[in-house]
Amino acid sequence: MPKKIQSLSGMHDIFNSRYDYFEKIREVSSRVAKEYGFKGIEFPIMEETELFARGVGGVTDIVEKEMYTFKTKGGDFVALRPEGTASVMRAYIEHNFYTRPQPTKLFYFGPFFRYERPQAGRFRQFWQFGLEAIGKSCFVVDVQIIKVISNIFEELGIKTKIEVNNMGDLKCRKEFKTVLRRYLKKRSNLLCSDCKRRLKENPLRVLDCKQCIEVKSEAPQIIDHICKQCRSDFKNFLEFLEELDIPYNLNPFLVRGLDYYTGTVYEFFLETEDEERMAVGGGGRYDGLSKILGDEERPATGVAIGIERIILAMEKSGGDIIEKKIPDVFIAQLGDLAKKKALNLFEEMRNSKVDVAESFGQDSLKSQMNRADKLGAKITIIIGKEEAVEDRVILRDMNSGEQEKIKTEEVLKEVKGRLKKNKNKD
Ligand code: AMP
């Protein structure tokens, strides 16, 4: 027998109750985003490698280690998208979105790819929902984005904490990098091998290294080195968070793993008793990205949340978020002629917006009745061999167990009448 083929490591199927959560997250997140004026965007799963190499930054884990890249048959260098922001900015520039009223507010929901070591809540293909607001610089938009995400989490029944920091604009960050590099150089023997290299290329990344805790703990903090404008923006941002009753903690080491961030940055962490902190989302301003991609400077801000981690949190919290769909009617049948009639009746019910269920693959009437019971159907329509010939059906009230035989042509009217009566009783 040929070998059974399994999904790739770090890539997974979503089905059963997880699919219900997945669908719920997608529905809630896009609905709430639309309520705040965000419009949906879909963009390709593959882009030129250079988009991410330039956009996300060469000295980031994502580009250095985690990107799925390959050469196409035509000789182009392409990458599976590791994140959404660079693509959204590419689309913004390509389609001249700046000619519309600003900011352009967009949301997306889709799969992303990073060649990471698979572990709990970390996959190689994972889904993100993201928001981007491009074209206007105002901390109110950052606060609004945080509010949108907080509302989504609340509706999904998961509790999170927000950590915030400010990474300075491109100018004050450059100055801070010099200060930080000086400090780190003196302690370079204590740094891990990755950070020794980062020290030269991007010392900020040392601040979110999980190994170099000791060196980090006494390192200069970016917040003490940002310019007047960044400081005032950050102060306003925090005041607005307070105004909207959004609790937060300051985290001076929060620098986010991507080069394009400037100014305010933040992450959402699950509120759990576990030692291990689980980030469910992160974002911030990225005013420098459009220039890196060859356009003029466009102020921008955005966030992305991780769908699999939200599903895990929803499973843990055990909240009854998913409504169980109870069919109004179940159609059971016995024999070939009955099956044909049942198929037609199903279509008739569906076209008339009656919630109808079936189990046409089953031949035994007993197992079909069990299924109708399990689903909680209010009425079951039974078409046996005899009824099929007579062009009649049996209507069974699943609550009282009472049965009645009626003509097939009358069944829709009768069912609708009974459902209406039931509704009025409720
Ligand atoms: P990032 O784009 O790295 O800021 O990620 C935003 C959010 O996406 C994170 O907070 C996670 O919830 C989620 N995420 C990032 N990488 C992964 C991954 N490899 N597997 C699952 N979720 C991820």
Give an overview of the whole structure.
The protein is an alpha+beta fold. The chain folds into two domains: 16-169 and 226-317, Bira Bifunctional Protein, Domain 2 (BirA Bifunctional Protein, domain 2), CATH 3.30.930.10; 329-417, Anticodon-binding domain (Rossmann fold, 3-Layer(aba) Sandwich), CATH 3.40.50. 40% of the residues lie in helices and 21% in strands. It is built from 15 helices and 16 strands. The chain has an eight-stranded mixed sheet with strand order 1-5-6-11-10-9-7-8, with helices on both faces. A five-stranded mixed sheet has the order 13-12-14-15-16, with helices on both faces. Strands 2-4-3 form a three-stranded antiparallel sheet. A hairpin with a 5-residue loop joins strand 15 (392-397) and strand 16. Helix 1 (16-35) packs antiparallel against helix 5, helix 1 crosses helix 11 and helix 5 (139-156) runs parallel beside helix 9 (228-243). The longest helix has 20 residues, at 16-35. The protein is elongated, with a radius of gyration of 28 Å. Bound molecules: adenosine monophosphate. Adenosine monophosphate binds next to strand 6, strand 10, strand 11 and helix 11.
